[in-house]
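[job 4471] stage=fold_predict status=RUNNING
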Amino acid sequence: MITSLLLYCALGAVAGLLAGLLGIGGGAVVVPMLVFSFQWLNISPDVAMHMAVGTSLGSIMFTAISSAMAHHRHGGVDWHVFRCIAVGILIGTYSGSFIAARIPGRYLQMFFVVFLYYVATNMLLNKKPSASRTLPGLAGMTGAGMVIGAVSSLVGIGGGTLSVPFLVWHNVDMRRAVGTSAAIGFPIAFAGCLGFITNGWNTPGLPEYALGFVYLPALAGIVAVSMLTAPIGAGIAHKLPIPKLKKFFACFLYVIATKMLLDVL
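[job 4471] inference complete, writing structure tokens
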């Protein structure tokens, strides 16, 4: 148990830094690492992926608060955008959790692998959407929020890989898009975590200390450290260029995605 808690604390440190630095919420690392740790603990593969996603979303609730406040102090959060998109985010994420809970773990993991390859490729190529239009009205923002939330609930992320390009495409400054994405991560994580707790309740094969599809020991370890490192990442994001770091991280994601793919084939 001590070894597991140390692993979860290390995951939290990485998740917090990534949330603040890259605006991706850390789930891209937390989910696969949780899957690997659950395999090591001999947790049933039927629930391991669902628990990894649910636990990741639970941890992002805390990381998002810490990261968003850090970006807010730098003037990097557009709270008007946050208010316009939040309702759609809540609806999309909570609804998506019901879909995710009914997908067999093997296929949910394969969907996550495809998503990781997509994220890594975008980072490696440093593809940025051209700012070609203004933000839509409330209806358009709600619709966008529902899509971002639904996908986030399937892969256990804070939505930054979708919300940052969406905001940049609509003429929001990159640093402000990252900060706003960090704030958007909270309603995504809250609705998703609630959905995974609800849908995982009394599911056969869950280990001790699981609250639905949220594994409390892992959540505690990740949260304890991630809230300390998220402000550090946010501070670095406002001071240093990070293209080289993104390329290194992209290669790391390719390795993780390939390992997860081999596990399910």
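[job 4471] summary: The first strand starts at residue 210 and ends at 211.
[job 4471] exit 0
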